[in-house]
């Protein structure tokens, strides 16, 4: 398979830390980036959950408790459809 070289500006400290992580996994930076790019193409997007934007609160499960209600007769047939239900 033909390859292409790319130049990407990366924070020096992040690059060093990433190289250490990938070395511990038995791969180099190029292999790790290729894995990421292949997954991004396969999934047609970023292949992991993006962290929330700074300052943007993430809703917690149950945080709207008591704010939503459902009528007791929610599942009851509607008057408009009674003729079709008989």
Please describe the topology of this protein.
Blueprint: H1 12-24, H2 29-43, H3 82-85
Task: Explain what the structure shows.
By secondary structure, this protein is an all-alpha fold. It has a domain at about 10-50. The chain is built from three helices and no strands. The protein has helices at about 10-25, 30-45, 80-85. The radius of gyration is 26 Å and the shape is elongated. The mean pLDDT is about 90.
Portion of residues within helices: 25-40%
- Report the uncertain regions: none
Rg, Å, rounded: 26 Å
Class by alpha and beta content = mainly alpha
Q: Please provide the ordered H/E string of secondary-structure elements.
A: HHH
Tell me the major beta sheet. Answer: none
Counted beta strands: 0
Highlighted features:
0% strand, 37% helix, 86 residues, 3 helices, mainly alpha
Brief overview, please?
With 86 residues, the protein is mostly helical. Helices cover 37% and strands 0% of the residues. The protein has a domain at 8-49.
């Amino acid at each position: 398979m033909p390859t292409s070289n790319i130049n990407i500006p990366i924070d020096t400290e992040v690059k060093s830390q990433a190289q250490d992580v990938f070395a511990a996994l038995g791969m180099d930076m190029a292999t790790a980036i290729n894995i990421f790019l292949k997954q991004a193409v396969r999934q047609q997007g970023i292949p992991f959950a993006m962290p929330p934007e700074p300052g943007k609160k993430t809703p917690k499960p149950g945080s709207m408790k008591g704010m939503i209600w459902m009528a007791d007769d929610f599942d009851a047939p509607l008057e408009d459809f009674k003729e079709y239900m008989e």
